[in-house]
Design goal:
The protein is mainly α. The chain is about 80% helix and about 0% strand. The protein has one domain (about 1-84).
Length: about 80
């Protein structure tokens, strides 16, 4: 019984992740395009650019994870799912 519950929770977690990925596709593309084209961003410093893109994406991803979790009957750690 415990394995079945764990399996169901893993499946629910995978569904939350899939939902978030689908919801975020267009937002991620837009954030990257906006960040790359914005003034003050140097394309000669790729590490800085990637850091800035990640800073822009984190709150958007976190909010999408929270929204998806509200639809789930399981309790998950939003930060752990966000890292995946």
């Amino acid at each position: 019984m415990k394995k079945q519950k764990e399996s169901s929770q893993v499946e629910a977690e995978a569904q939350v992740i899939a939902t978030v990925k689908e919801q975020l596709k267009s937002a991620i593309i837009k954030i990257i395009q906006t960040t790359v084209s914005s003034s003050g961003v140097s394309l000669e410093d790729p590490n800085s650019l990637v850091t800035r893109i990640i800073q822009q994406l984190c709150p958007v991803v976190f909010q999408a994870v929270h929204t998806a979790l509200r639809m789930s009957s399981y309790t998950f750690n939003a930060e752990a799912l966000m890292a995946r």
